[in-house]
Write a structure and sequence with these properties.
Blueprint (H helix, E strand, L loop, with lengths): L4 E6 L5 E2 L15 E6 L1 H5 L37 H7 L8 E6 L5 H12 L5 E5 L4 H11 L25 E4 L4 H11 L3 E5 L16 H18 L2 E6 L12 H5 L2 E6 L6 E9 L7 E7 L2 E4 L18 E8 L2 E13 L7 E4 L3 H15 L6 E7 L11 H13 L7 E3 L2 E2 L5 E2 L4 H10 L4 E5 L10 E5 L2 H9 L4 H10 L6
Parallel strand pairs: 4-8, 4-9, 5-6, 5-7, 7-8, 15-16, 17-20, 20-21
Antiparallel strand pairs: 1-2, 1-3, 9-10, 10-11, 11-12, 13-14, 14-16, 18-19
Helix pairs in contact: 5-6, 8-9, 9-11, 11-12
Length: about 500
């Protein structure tokens, strides 16, 4: 008879060890091993154990060639949100698992409840709320205008929108027990199911607490097997750690088909839905939503969120075109350069990679001659958007140079290019897509790297090969040599 034994499981990577160590031997994290007692039944049925009752050569052959596999074409289901469909790669794939993570209070439950409401108009949907009661979810749905029943004679005013489908197509289950949820899924067989959240589910055969590595791994694995067998689309909500990663072992992200991160500044109204893994579409796609009184609303023109009003022109502001997946976004960059009162100047980056900023500041001091080692430098992206691609380098460099010289960059100019360590402007990808977005928003000029000039666009495109040439074109009409001399000899006001 098998005996119960203890194993130590890493909370970060899910690795198991029979002995406790202060440092995980797999991922290297400290103090992450947690003791878990495995019951005899769990040990006996644990996946991966070799069976000695049957010979391996007596098992039937299950492998097939690609030609033997029958192809069943399936059309994607629209979620009702074009932004969510974009991130998913064109819609919801039947039988797929989608993991949605994000900070607490960012709007994950709101987004999935509204999505479930819209999907219920054409499919049966089961919403499993493991962290709230049914009354709490219904109270939230009434605030969002979901399943609002008409009063009186049931007639609606002309032009009044029907916010919710019939109550018979959207089901609600307040349960944390995994076996009960699996039984309900097998009995109801909905086309779409939402699990909110996976850290709150509990599997009775495991002695560990809900949210532990073993519970999250086993619950996700059981839900995945049922979803693939019954062709049920699952949306799973996952908590995140202090570092911003989805809580639980990494195997959780490997089990699902799509991983989405819902992010945004809690002091701003817009929310960003970003794809980091997608087996049925492109990764790093971006969907933009706005938090309003009635919940989350789609943003049809996201570039307007990350651009200034343009009424007042101030020095140190430039405009770039960043690409998030296949979506171009026009973003305004702001820079402030001022004399420092400390022995070591401050460098602050908001929405820009800190190491990237230090590299661009070093290029400007070495190749252009701007004495930034004696100045504080602050760079931020408008709207709080995180811009990490190298195509924003040229916009950062010109914004810093404009703030140093107290010059105003032409508001009708857009800047695209990567800055190399030698001071050269290097080519970037998707240049045509970026220029089309700039032309659509009314920009008149564009500075691009040499060899990437696109014809047929209503833009005055100027090719530049060096950063100093780009600064000369963006700030003044004088030659690059004169500008470099002016930068080197410019006095610094200590006040």
């Amino acid at each position: 008879m098998a005996k119960a034994r203890s194993v130590y499981v890493c909370n970060e990577c899910g690795a198991e060890s029979r002995q406790y160590f202060g440092k995980c031997a797999v991922c290297g994290s400290w103090n992450s091993l947690v003791e878990q007692v495995m019951e005899p039944e769990a040990i006996a049925v644990r996946p991966g154990r070799r069976s000695t009752s049957k010979r391996a050569d007596s098992k039937p052959r299950l492998a097939k060639t690609f030609s033997q596999i029958v192809d069943h074409p399936q059309s994607r289901i629209s979620s009702g949100y074009s932004e969510l469909d974009r991130v998913l790669g064109g819609g919801i794939v039947p039988g797929s698992l989608v993991l949605v993570g994000g900070d607490p209070g960012i709007g994950k439950s709101t987004l999935l409840l509204q999505t479930a409401n819209r999907l219920a108009a054409k499919a049966s949907v089961l919403y499993v709320c493991a962290e709230e009661s049914g009354q709490q979810v219904k109270l939230r749905s009434q605030r969002l205008g979901i399943n609002q029943e008409t009063e009186g004679n049931g007639e609606r005013e002309p032009g009044e929108d029907v916010l919710g489908p019939s109550p018979e197509s959207l089901f609600l289950l307040a349960e944390t027990d995994l076996e009960t949820i699996l039984a309900e899924l097998e009995s109801l067989r909905p086309q779409v199911a939402v699990i909110d959240s996976i850290q709150a589910l509990f599997y009775g055969q495991l002695t560990s607490a809900p949210g532990s590595v073993s519970q999250v791994r086993e619950c996700t694995s059981a839900l995945m097997q049922l979803a693939k067998r019954e062709n049920i689309t699952l949306f799973i909500v996952g908590h995140v750690t202090k570092e911003g990663a989805i809580a639980g072992p990494k195997v959780l992200e490997h089990l699902v088909d799509t991983v989405l991160y819902f992010e945004g500044d809690r002091f701003a109204s817009h929310r960003l839905l970003r794809s980091v893994k997608n087996r049925f579409g492109a990764t790093h796609e971006l969907g933009v939503f706005e938090m309003v009184a009635e919940g989350l609303a789609e943003v049809t023109n996201p570039s307007a969120l990350f651009m200034g009003n343009g009424d007042e022109q101030v020095p140190g502001i430039s405009t770039i075109v960043a690409c998030e997946g296949s979506r171009p976004l026009v973003v305004e960059l702001q820079s402030l350069v001022s004399p420092t009162s400390y022995s070591s100047p401050r460098r602050t980056a908001t929405g820009i990679g800190y190491n990237r900023l230090l590299q661009i500041l070093a290029v400007l001091e070495k190749r252009v001659g701007i004495p930034l080692s004696k100045l504080d430098a602050y760079v931020a992206s408008s709207g709080g958007l995180s811009v990490g691609e190298p195509a924003a380098d040229l916009g950062i460099a010109i914004a810093v140079a404009a703030s140093f010289r107290d010059r105003i960059v032409d508001p009708g100019l857009v800047l695209i290019g990567e800055v190399g360590l030698g001071g050269q402007v290097r080519p970037v990808s998707q240049i045509e897509l970026r220029l089309k977005e700039a032309a659509k928003l009314g920009f008149k000029r564009a500075l691009v790297p040499k060899g990437q000039k696109i014809a047929g666009l209503p833009l005055e495109i100027t090719e530049v090969g060096r950063v100093v040439d780009a600064i000369a074109q963006a700030l003044t009409n004088q030659c690059a040599t004169a500008l470099a001399f002016e930068v080197e000899t410019a006095p610094i006001d200590p006040d």
